[in-house]
């Protein structure tokens, strides 16, 4: 083994669960599977995660090529720079989403060569038969990435699934507008079905689709139940592992493999809780990953937090589920309508709670809920330079939290039965770099920030002990 390979082996991130350690092989097999599927003549679609159409494309036997995932793999393997540079040579700015830049650079190179770029990570990104973009407010590339890719693949058609994010307004009730949204989402998904039927030459089997939606909903509920196990003290799994265990959630919904994975994870976490086995031997600080995609090339930062006794029992990133029974979904046998209600229910789940707190908004309410449920001592967020639309509001959310935890007096009951007050403090840390552009990252600066944050957490703990 070469010296550089040995160095990378030493830097591999440690996982706390067996489930997380199995994800690498699962992703590698999935990426390799798309290349094999292409050779077998199956239909491939470039796809975005969290677009509500997973069960639809699987029911049509379309193989998804998750372009964001492949860019993340390139970043995690620290092999994205050459694709980013190639995209820049095509007059794309480095300030754009680096997921998109990596994908565009890869596509341009593959099309130019007529084969995969040399030493493509895990076999490369297969050429699609069509592309499914998504007109969401979530991020700009979901409209434009695949349009840009068409200049290299002009023969590959696009269907844009125009799924909305219902806007939050204090004076508008979800119940008053939900029928409009459902009608619109159903129309968009039926349009997708029609497009897929035209591209594949086969009709949708709605009985099969209904079975996959059933499976997706069972998996959805199982994920929520499993992740809630992390409330335990000590927590059996942290965010570092969750950045791996999210893979079946966002890339494999509607598959038995995803359901079985979370069934195994559920059992593993319950076993760890029974043994009182946590992420670290001495859990000192419980932190919330309050927002932002991670730097995929620097997931070992989670191990560094762990080395200081800090764990992340919960995160907002990639926790894309709430239990189905809480989403106020009506009874319907139409699988397309069920997908529409699931989408609307999840994205409006926190709206009613936010209206009960003046000046709040849904994302802040979610943070508050996690802070209380998971006994959080501090919040960490990551500002990714090239991911502006999702990361834009993170600092505002922290400012809203500071108004609530500034600190404020909290009524407590002492051991002697007398009432007293305790000041609640909630330190926060903002990390800065990018999702896959490693040139933005300084390990020394990041570790120094983490050290200072840990010192703040320790001081808050001492202040709390002094007041008792």
- Beta content: 5-15%
Computed Rg: 23 Å
CATH topology of one domain: Rossmann fold
Architecture of one domain, CATH level 2?
3-Layer(aba) Sandwich
How is the largest sheet built, in terms of strand order? 2-1-3-4
Oligomer: single chain
What is the CATH first-level class name of one domain?
A: Alpha Beta
Question: Major sheet: size, sense and barrel closure?
Answer: 4 strands, parallel
Average the pLDDT over all residues and give the rounded result.
Answer: 90
Query: End-to-end distance, in Å?
Result: 56 Å
Q: How would the global form be characterised?
A: globular
Find the structural class using helix and strand composition.
alpha/beta
Helix content: 40-55%
Task: Give helix and strand order, one letter per element, not per position.
Answer: HHHEHEHHHEHEHHHHHEHEHHHEHHEEEH
Number of helices: 20
Uncertain runs with pLDDT below 50, 5 residues or more?
Answer: 1-10, 408-422
Total strands: 10
């Amino acid at each position: 083994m070469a010296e550089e390979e040995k160095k990378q082996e030493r830097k591999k991130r440690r996982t706390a669960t067996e489930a997380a350690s199995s994800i690498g092989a699962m992703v590698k097999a999935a990426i390799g599977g798309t290349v094999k599927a292409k050779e077998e003549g199956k239909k491939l679609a470039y796809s975005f995660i969290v677009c509500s159409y997973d069960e639809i494309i699987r029911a049509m036997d379309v193989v998804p090529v998750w372009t964001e995932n492949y860019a993340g793999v390139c970043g995690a393997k620290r092999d994205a720079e050459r694709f980013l540079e190639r995209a820049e040579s095509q007059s794309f700015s480095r300030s754009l989403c680096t997921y998109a830049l990596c994908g565009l650079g890869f596509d341009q190179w593959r099309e130019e060569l007529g084969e995969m770029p040399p030493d493509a990570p895990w076999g490369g990104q297969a050429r699609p038969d069509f592309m499914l973009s998504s007109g969401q407010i979530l991020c700009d590339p979901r409209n434009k990435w695949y349009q840009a890719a068409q200049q290299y693949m002009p023969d590959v058609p696009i269907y844009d699934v125009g799924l909305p994010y219902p806007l939050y307004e204090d004076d508008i009730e979800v119940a008053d507008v939900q029928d409009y949204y459902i009608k619109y989402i159903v129309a968009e998904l039926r349009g997708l079905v029609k497009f897929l039927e035209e591209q594949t030459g086969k009709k949708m089997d709605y009985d099969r689709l209904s079975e996959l939606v059933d499976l997706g909903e069972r998996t959805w509920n199982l994920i929520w139940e499993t992740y809630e196990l992390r409330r335990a003290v000590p927590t059996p799994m942290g965010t570092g592992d969750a950045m791996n265990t999210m893979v079946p959630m966002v890339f494999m919904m509607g598959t038995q493999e995803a359901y079985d994975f979370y069934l195994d994870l559920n059992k593993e976490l319950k076993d760890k809780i029974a043994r009182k086995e946590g992420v670290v031997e001495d859990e000192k600080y419980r932190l919330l990953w309050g927002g932002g995609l991670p730097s995929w090339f620097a997931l070992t930062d989670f191990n560094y937090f762990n080395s200081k006794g800090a764990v992340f029992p919960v995160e907002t990133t990639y926790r894309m589920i709430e239990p189905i029974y809480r989403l106020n979904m009506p009874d319907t046998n139409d699988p397309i309508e069920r997908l529409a209600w699931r989408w609307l229910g999840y994205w409006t789940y926190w709206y009613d709670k936010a209206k009960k707190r003046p000046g709040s908004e849904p994302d802040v309410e979610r943070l508050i809920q996690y802070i209380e449920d998971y006994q959080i001592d501090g919040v960490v967020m990551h500002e990714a330079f090239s991911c502006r639309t999702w990361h834009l509001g993170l600092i505002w959310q922290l400012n809203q939290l500071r108004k609530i935890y500034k600190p404020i007096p909290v009524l407590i009951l002492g051991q002697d039965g007398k009432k007293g007050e305790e000041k609640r403090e909630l330190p926060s840390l903002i990390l800065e770099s990018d999702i896959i552009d490693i040139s933005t990252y300084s390990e020394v600066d990041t570790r120094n920030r983490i050290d200072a944050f840990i010192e703040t957490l320790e001081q808050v703990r001492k202040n709390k002990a002094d007041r008792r």
